Give the backbone structure.
Amino acid sequence: MKTYAVKANEIERGWWVVDASGQTLGRLSTRIATLLEGKHKPTWSPHLDSGDHVVVINAAQIRVTGNKLSQKTYYRHSNYPGGLKAETLDHLLERKPTLVIERAVWGMLPQNRLGRAMLRKLKVYPGPDHPHQAQQPVAVETGEAPTE
């Protein structure tokens, strides 16, 4: 019996929609990263991007545990001297709630070309509306990872 290896032209991509309202940031990000990588598929291969597209709605309504709203700090730099900017999670959720989920998921993906290709399949929206109804995304049930 031979071992099956999926080829790049045989990969089938699905669409998933995840409702982030009331979900914990880290657990939600882990579930999303699993879908983007394709680890929920039996044909997963570490050297190929075999994952699906993920649409996240209600990103502004995520939860965090403990005192992370005031203690967790996000940094960015303008590449100019003295250009380091710091922002708490509370302020970033008010200003741009989609960026919180994108950065959490990015930290769980491979930090290379493959990870960047996976991140391009992530679509995050702060409210309940999204423009991807034509792709007929399947809703992910909360609490469990989807299976094919």
